[in-house]
Amino acid sequence: MDEDYRKLIHDARNPLNNISVHAELSKLALQTSSDIDKAITSLDVILSECQRCSQKLQSLADTLEAKERE
Amino acid sequence: MAKILLVDDDQAFLDATGELLTMLGHSVVTADSVAGAQRVASGKVFDHVILDLILPDGSGLHVLDQLESGNTTNVTLVTGHPSVKSVVKDLYGPNISYLIKPIDLKQLQSLLDKPVAKKVRSEELPGMHFGHLVGESAPMKKLYEMIDRVSGTKANVLLMGESGVGKEVVAGAIHYASQPEGEFVPANCGAFARDLISSELFGHEKGAFTGASHRKAGVFELANKGTLFLDEITEMPIEQQPNLLRVLETQKVTRLGATSAIDINCRVVSATNRTESQLAEENCLREDLYFRLAVFPIYIPPLRQRLEDIPLLVEHFLADFNKQYQAEVGIDEASLRRLQTYDWPGNVRELRHAIHRAYIMADRDTNNLVLPDDLSSPFSKTGESKISGISVGKTVEDVERELIETTLEHLDGDKKKAAEMLGISLKTLYNRLNSYAEEH
Q1: Taking CB atoms and an 8 Å cut-off, how many pairs form between chains A and B?
Q2: Is the pLDDT of residue B385 over 70?
Q3: CATH superfamily of domain region B384-439
Q4: Measured by CB atoms within 10 angstroms of the end CB, which terminus of chain B is less buried, N or C?
Q5: Residues of B whose CB is below 8 A from A10
Q6: What is the model's pTM?
């Protein structure tokens, strides 16, 4: 696979990874300390990381399109 | 608790994972580049290094080159794709682990719990079964088979046996054989103050009741992923039992005063010195709770049914005391034979106590144990005899029958021994038993 794609896919996985870790973090915060503020902070991160993931996927799609047109 | 070095170029990931690991009780150092990792890690030794392969200023593997004492450190690579595994394996051998993105709690925990499991195995002692039990008699062999079977499952176990047979030791053996991630947490239901049972079992939040000045985890929470041993389960007040039942059914615990439940995954090993029929008759254990607890009931044999194990047990206790007192006390053949003729109503606990006493009284010249003239303990003469026995109004036949039946029961149905003990011929014994059978 092209080095560009590899980089883009790696970039798209990072926000997904953050979503996963923050989901665990908020779950743990609620389970062990009922710390709602902490959970909400994590949930906010999850929401913004969803946006970031979408952007990364979009730039991957754009690159693919550009390659096809060439 | 482990010391962890976490290296990744994504700051948000670093912060979150660092926090997650801290919440799990580990100490974490983070860095976002090869240079940064080398800076924070200089001179320190880590139990785990978790690395991203692709870092802004080079490969994550460069971090490893600079790290001290590589052999005790577990290295984990964070990768987006499993295919990376095969590439790196050739470089660093099988000691390397992988976290596949997206990372979740399960992955992290299984990674960090790995070395603990290894340690337990290496402590295996010679002559000990499951690291806890001593004895090679047939009833014990059967017990080992049961422990072996149940260790592969998640079933709750109810241990039954007389006082002193070693129920907590067997519970420890089950925990050992199952090799769970979590701890072995013993709790005695008879020892809890009545008002505090719920708090002890399920924990409480700060301020849940007067005097609750701190948040406290209950024994269920402490035993998560491990084994919870509830001794004297029948001592739990009957009105508290539905709460316990609910936890077992839902596998969730709610601390007193908390608004949300915590997932609990542990094996519950409970114990009682009552028999199954006593449990049913005395109404000390709810039937629905019994079925939850006794998915796999195990009966632990009394010591008098495995008298041939006494030499091994004595040897084990002597080794223990010799280590404790730094001495070399032994036992002679005659004493050992005497120990095997006594019937030990207090079971292994009584035997241990007798050995300890004889140890203190040991002959200083021969370095051998000195047994007392009378082995029986003051507690052994009460109890059992109350049920049977002589009272006005019973016929001679009744008493004779009771005597024969009690003797047989005591010897587990060995008719030859029973006849000897009763001072009658085997033939007479058979005749009596036949006549009882006809009466039915």
Answers
A1: 61
A2: no
A3: Homeodomain-like (1.10.10.60)
A4: C
A5: 54, 80
A6: 0.54
